[in-house]
Write a structure and sequence with these properties.
By secondary structure, the protein is of the alpha/beta class. It folds into two domains: 198 residues, FAD/NAD(P)-binding domain, CATH 3.50.50.60; 206 residues, no CATH class. The chain contains nine helices and 25 strands. The strands form eight sheets. Strands 1, 2, 5, 6, 7, 8 and 25 form a seven-stranded mixed β-sheet that branches. Strands 10-21-11-12-17 form a five-stranded parallel β-sheet, covered by helices on one side. Strands 18-19-20 form a three-stranded antiparallel β-sheet, with no helix packed on it. Strand 1, helix 1 and strand 2 form a beta-alpha-beta unit. The chain is globular, with a radius of gyration of 22 Å.
């Protein structure tokens, strides 16, 4: 058996950021990583994916993007190199190729059983990520035989898909990016849309991520939100990172040829049923986008900076066209693949501790888990709106490391 004061499970941006802050406090620890550093970025993303945030916003403790394209968007190999460089600079004590099989509470801490042996620790940090498992709705079982059914974690590029049309279910960041890419390969694409968050890539001459960072939106804290549970379930932003800083939304997709339908609510005998609430979802998304832009305009005026940016403007409302179908027969052979871009969830199947709510989610208060000495990182809006982004890992880790350090000092007193 091996011992460390703290065991961190996962060596992505969250685990590495926590490691840096523990090192700065001289707290001995180890990071256990099932694959390589940044494993999910290496092996669980599609080929063309780029970050949604500009490169300058990739900020980890004492380590920022230093390349030639600060306003660009890193591709996955670049993200892997960036995180690997940070791990080297931070001298993170990572044990790669170590799969955690079971974690159980023990007197004064936790036992972490892995395929490389057992660790005992006083403090435990769960930094294995929020996107370990792609969620697929139960109605997927109603797909007709012969239709390929995959998730974004299995998708790599259009060449792997069966010949024929594709239905993408879900229109957050993943869904709209896949719809755009697959349409460009010459296939028919149907996009099933529910609740979504519409944003322009650029507003008044600046990336929308710059605005959200500058006016403080990304730094909003979890304890300042009235309904944090609802905030944590908001879909990811409809954005894409391209050299041209293109805006991608339902209007641009529809103009390109994507068929837009409502949320998939039923699948029986091979016949898909779509919700009639699509127009309401779109109207609400347009309204929220315009409220955000109003807030940006107010910030510019109140800070006397009207001359420093392009003039304010608004974007055309979402146009769904004259007819949105409420159903589709998948038995007719037109659709050959369905991609379930319906979200992700963490995988804590190895965690044998009474820390889950009735829906299987970890009970925590800003990352402090409802169990002695246990912490979680990298979840949506965990401590700040930016918690699940690379840019959010450092600030969250700093506060949780301080909490962890204080607990150790108190126990030693």
């Amino acid at each position: 058996m091996k011992y460390a004061t703290t065991v961190i499970i996962g060596a992505g941006q969250s685990g590495l950021a926590m490691s840096k802050h523990l090192t700065d406090r001289s707290i001995d620890h180890v990071l256990l990583e099932r694959g390589e550093i940044a494993n999910s970025w290496r092996k669980e993303r599609w080929d063309s994916l780029r970050l949604l945030t500009p490169n300058w916003q990739s900020r980890l403790p004492g380590f920022r993007y230093a390349g030639d394209e600060p306003d660009g968007y890193m591709a996955m190999p670049e993200v892997v190199r960036y995180l690997g460089s940070f791990a080297n600079v931070a001298q993170a004590p990572v044990q790669t190729g170590t799969r955690v099989e079971r974690v159980v509470p023990t007197e004064g801490g936790y036992l972490v059983e892995t395929d490389q042996g057992v660790w005992r620790c006083r403090k435990l940090v769960l930094a294995s990520g929020a996107c370990n498992v792609a969620t697929v709705p139960g109605l997927a079982a109603g797909l007709p035989a012969g239709i390929q059914s995959i998730t974004p974690m299995q998708y790599r590029n259009p060449a792997q898909l069966a010949d024929g049309g594709v239905m993408v279910v879900g229109a957050a960041a993943t869904g709209i990016q896949l719809a755009r890419e697959i349409l460009a390969s010459g296939r028919r694409v149907v996009l099933s849309v529910g609740e979504h968050v519409r944003l322009p890539r650029v507003y008044r001459g600046q990336d929308i991520a710059w605005w959200m960072d500058t006016v403080g939106i990304m730094n909003m804290r979890y304890d300042a939100i009235e309904d944090i549970g609802r905030a944590r379930r908001v879909p990811s932003l409809q954005l894409i990172g391209t050299p041209e800083r293109k805006t991608i939304d339902l209007n641009s997709l529809r103009e390109a040829g994507v068929e837009i339908v409502g949320r998939l609510v039923g699948l029986h005998d091979g016949k898909a049923q779509f919700s009639g609430s699509l127009a309401n979802h779109c109207m609400l998304a347009d309204l929220k986008m315009n409220r955000l832009l109003d807030g940006i305009d107010t910030w510019v005026s109140e800070n006397g900076r009207d001359d420093g940016f392009d003039a304010p403007h608004r974007f055309a409302p979402t146009d769904l066209g004259p007819h949105v179908p409420l159903g589709m027969d998948l038995n007719d052979g037109g659709i050959k693949t369905v991609i379930w871009a319906t979200g992700y969830r963490p995988d804590y199947s190895w965690l044998d501790a009474p820390v889950f709510d009735r829906k299987g989610r970890i009970r925590h208060d800003g990352g402090v888990v409802d169990a002695p000495g246990m912490y979680v990182m990298g979840l949506p809006f965990m401590r700040r709106r930016k918690s699940s982004f690379i840019d959010g890992a450092g600030d969250d880790a700093a506060e949780l490391a301080e909490h962890l350090h204080f607990g150790l000092q108190r126990a030693a007193a």
